């Protein structure tokens, strides 16, 4: 069950990150999540995703991500993608359901550079938190 949740969350981020080629080329600064820790253990980091339920609000998810932060080995682009994601999720209304978390909803105000880093974070998350051999997206 844990693997399924992590794989689903990683797949969501990878799918949402697929919009990285859209939008303008201006990069925005994200100050809200920028102060999140940079020394999380991989276990703590991945556990944040596995703790998401259907009743988790965007604000709760953003708070959890901001509290745990990222592992120290995350590259700069992926870290910025984490910050962009946390800030975007925090801006969503708490009534947002998981089925409403589409690329359009989460990335609508992101620049192309932010979307690229967001996609990098999705790839980092999938690599670090999904066991090898676990499919992260349905094959077509």
Please give the structural blueprint:
Layout: H1 2-17, H2 42-50, H3 58-68, H4 76-90, H5 103-107, H6 112-129
Helix pairs in contact: 1-2, 1-6, 2-3, 3-4, 4-6
Describe this structure in words.
- It is a single chain.
- The protein is mostly helical and 140 residues long.
- The chain has one domain (2-23, 31-129).
- It contains six helices and no strands.
- The longest helix is centred in the C-terminal third of the chain and has 18 residues, at 112-129.
How many E-type strands? Answer: 0
Choose one word for the global shape: globular
Spell out the helices and strands N to C: HHHHHH
* N-C termini distance: 23 Å
Overall pLDDT score: 73
Q: Per DSSP, what share of the residues sits in E-state strands of 2 or more residues?
A: under 5%
Using only CA atoms, what is the Rg? Answer: 14 Å
Q: Which structural class matches the secondary elements?
A: mainly alpha
The total number of structural domains is 1
How would a textbook summarize the main sheet?
none
DSSP summary: helix tally = 6
Low-confidence stretches: 1-8, 14-30
Percent of residues in helices: 40-55%
């Amino acid at each position: 069950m844990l693997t399924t949740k992590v794989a689903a969350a990683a797949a969501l981020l990878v799918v949402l990150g697929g919009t990285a080629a859209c939008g303008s080329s201006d990069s925005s600064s994200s100050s809200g999540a920028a102060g999140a820790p940079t020394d999380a253990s991989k276990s703590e980091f991945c556990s944040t995703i596995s703790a998401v339920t259907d009743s988790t609000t965007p604000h709760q998810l953003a708070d959890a991500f901001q509290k745990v932060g990222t592992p120290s080995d995350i590259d700069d682009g992926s870290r910025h993608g984490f910050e962009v994601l946390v800030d975007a999720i925090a801006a969503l209304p708490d009534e947002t359901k998981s089925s409403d978390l589409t690329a359009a909803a989460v990335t609508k105000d992101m620049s192309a550079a932010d979307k690229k880093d967001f996609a990098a974070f999705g790839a980092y998350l999938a690599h670090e938190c999904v066991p090898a051999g676990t499919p992260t997206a349905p094959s077509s």
